Amino acid sequence: MAITRFRPEVWSARLLVGTRTRLVYGQPGVVNRDYEGEIAESGDIVRITSISDPTIGTYTANSTVITPEELTDAQRTLQVDQSKYFAFKVDDVDKRQAKGSVMPEAMSRAAYQLAKVADSFVANLYTQAATANQLGTVSVTTADLAYAQIRAMKLRMDEADIPEEMRYLVGPHWFFSLLLDSSKYLDASASGSTEPLSNGFLGRTLGFNLAQSNQAPNPTGDDFVVQAGVPQAISFAEQINKTEAYRPENSFSDAIKGLHLYGAKVIRPDHIVTLVASKT
């Protein structure tokens, strides 16, 4: 196949869609992409500005003199510091002998592998949750214990004044498998929604969108992290920066290489609650 047969812009679009649709920790509803913008090169910095809360005072008619306060601002930086790539080739002979289209399948698998790496990166930001919101390690071996821990995480979020809208809870498959024995979880009245949900999502309970992922952090042994929060807590920015098709000089084959740039930042550590659930 001559290189003129390739359409790099088509490959790039296919790969970008493939990566986005497979993210769990990095998808909208778990993180926000408010500051994604245009990312050109690895090392780009997204600057995020916040302002202080205004002071609330008591007003007395005909007495209070109102003097406007000057709000202060602060700036955080989200650095796009993750650069991952793939590169593969398909020999002309193998391609001719293979049934179907080899390149689209290989591109799909490359997208899936990139998504796993990016999702794991975002998942491991759990360590930055506010200390007060880290609930420690708890043995979770039954449906009742799993449900009780979800309830404990909800209570902590309520006490921390974390917004009720768009709350999510992500954990390993085995944790949610336990819930299938819980009538409280299976009760349709507790789910709160019959709408289609996004990648990895199982339904709703206690105000959480529940999602499972094989990328749930595993700090040690049988201990896995269950994370709850709202999208405002973590900002994620990504871009498939470059995808190129070419003919390697030392073989008769078609090759494709691609570059994935991304970064993530915990903006509100007080809006994340974590629990280490032990299978034993």
Describe this structure in words.
- The protein has 2 domains: 3-50 and 72-124 and 237-264; 131-233 and 270-278.
- The chain is built from 7 helices and 11 strands.
- The chain has helices at residues 8-22, 92-97, 102-123, 143-159, 173-179, 183-186, 188-191; strands spanning 45-51, 73-79, 82-91, 134-139, 168-171, 201-205, 208-212, 223-229, 234-246, 253-266, 272-278.
- Strand 9 (234-246) and strand 10 (253-266) form a beta hairpin.
- By secondary structure, it is an alpha+beta fold.
- Strands 4-11-8-5-7-6 form a 6-stranded mixed beta sheet.
- The mean pLDDT is 83.
Cα radius of gyration in angstroms: 23 Å
What structural class is derived from the secondary structure elements? Answer: alpha+beta
**Residue runs with pLDDT of under 50 for 5 or more positions:** none
Instruction: Summarize model confidence as the mean pLDDT.
Output: 83
Distance between the termini: 56 Å
In percent, how helical is the residue content? 25-40%
What number of domains?
A: 2
- Largest β sheet strand count, sense and barrel closure: 6 strands, mixed
The helix-strand sequence is HEEEHHEHEHHHEEEEEE
Strands side by side in the biggest sheet: 4-11-8-5-7-6
Q: Tally the helices.
A: 7
State the oligomer.
Answer: single chain
Give the tally of β-strands: 11
- Label the overall shape: flat
Beta-strand residue percentage: 25-35%
Key features of this structure:
single chain; alpha+beta; 3-stranded antiparallel beta sheet
In brief:
The protein has 7 helices and 11 strands.
List the helices and strands and how they pair.
Layout: H1 8-22, E1 45-51, E2 73-79, E3 82-91, H2 92-97, H3 102-123, E4 134-139, H4 143-159, E5 168-171, H5 173-179, H6 183-186, H7 188-191, E6 201-205, E7 208-212, E8 223-229, E9 234-246, E10 253-266, E11 272-278
Helix pairs in contact: 1-3, 4-5
